[in-house]
Each structure stands twice: as C-alpha cells, then as structure tokens.
Amino acid sequence: MSNTKLNTAQVILTDCDDAVEEVKAAMRRLTTVRLQLEAQRAYVESLLAEKLDTSADSTDIQDIKVHDSAIKYRHNQGSNATSKRHRGFHSAGVIGNTAVTSGVRNEIMPTTSTLRGTDAEETGGLNVSEVKGFLIGLNALLTNANSNATHNTAAKEAIVGTQGVTGNYTAGLFSQHYVPGGIHRLNDEVFKALLLGATSWNKVTITDQDVAWGATTANTGIETKGFNLS
Which of 131, 124, 33 is nearest to 79 (CA)? Predict the structure, then answer.
C-alpha cells in the first residue's frame, strides 16, 4: 500500500540532499571540537607539569591550584593572571606561583590560533564537562533504536538519571558505568546535557523522568527514536 504522492517524493529528495550537507557541516565542526579538546588537554598537562615541578616537594599536592581556565572548553589562557598568562597562573592565592621562572614552556594556544578563546568564554563559556555531556547525548541518540518504543538493552548508563538510581549516586553526574565512546542510555539528564544546561525556556521544559530504563527492549522510559548505530 502506498500513500506517498510523487510531489512528496520530490521534496524528500531535497531533504536527503540537505541532510547530507548537514552531516558534512557537523563533521567539520566536530573535528574542530576534537582539536579544541586536544589543545585543552595539552594546556592542562602543561599547567600540571609546571605546578608539580615547582611545588610537589614542599607542598601537599591537594593544595596546589591552577588557573580556573583549566576547566573551560575555550578560554584566553588565564586572562585575569598578571604574569605568565599563557600558562594560566593566577597571581594571588596560588601556592607555588612565584617559584616558576619565565620561559620554561611555550604557549599551547598562541594568540593567533583559532583555538584561542576570549575573556568572555573564559568566565562564562562552556566547561569541558559540559562538552563531554553534550557528546554523550549525541552518541546516545545515534545509537538508540530507530523506534520510540524499544531500546538497546546493552547500552550502559553514562550520566545518572533521576530514575533507577541505586547506591550513593547523584542525578546529573557521570556514572561509574560510563564507557567513553560506548553505547549510552538515554534518560532525562542526558537530554539536559544535550541542551547544555538550558532546561527550560518559553515552550520547552524537560521534566524529571518517571520511568526507569527497562531491562527489556520495551519500557524505555524515554520515548524517542534514534539512528540505531553501533
């Protein structure tokens, strides 16, 4: 039985072409995200190496502090530091800061680099953990079943949801069962992560999930379709 008209099929051709362009754009942008995260990792490694080199012998490592730009996805490498800006050292209240001599390490993200963020991003932009949560949500949708009534029972919890929480866990935190790059369960907190913290505005509200992730292919707790990828 067929109810699809010829003119509708012509529209679908355009939709397919448009979707392909969206995939190309997403791949390009996600590559930039990967490069940004790799640069941030190198930046944080540099901060840790400098601090431990100068402070570990005389200071409890738990008390050593680095600049808050360490947690940011994009930043200006310590824009509120008065010295050694490119290494993110804060000028006040940071143990071991004055013991570091200049010229030890080069900038991880030079001023001319497209990976270098702004002062505004450093204070109000995304944290690395928020980017991680967003990408977990994206992969959860890509791997969820192509049905709003079933799900992959092999999927593991990546972000703790409000339902089915057992033990000393807190909804919204990364789960101890999280497998990087794996197949992730969809729940209310995963959808919140996809929205990067914007859980309610005008006509959009994400309420707490009232059904836990089911042990069978039915009873998903989240009625949404995915791409059924591995």
Answer: 124
